Amino acid sequence: METCISDVKQWITSDNLMLNDDKIEFIVIASQHLLKKAAVNTIPVGDCDVSKVSVVRNLGVWFDDQLTMAVHITKICSATFYHLHNVKEILN
Hints:
This protein is of the alpha+beta class. The protein has two domains: 1-53, no CATH class; 54-92. The protein is built from three helices and four strands, in the order ααββββα. The strands form two sheets. It has a two-stranded antiparallel sheet with strand order 1-2. Strands 3-4 form a two-stranded antiparallel ribbon. The N and C termini lie far apart (55 Å).
């Protein structure tokens, strides 16, 4: 994993882009049983260690470690109610 991340970082740097080591996250996606067996908690990237998280966002979609999409659905419902409330206020 470390070698793969290092290669991606080198590829990004060769295209004159920057990779912010402090904003990198990783997630292990598996069943609850297999997640208990996952021993990887950190991966060294550049000068810092990246910690494993249980929820990540990619291109506006929230993924959890079991792919239940519960976090994504909750955030979509919350945003929908917020916008419906704003529409109600405009119409009143």
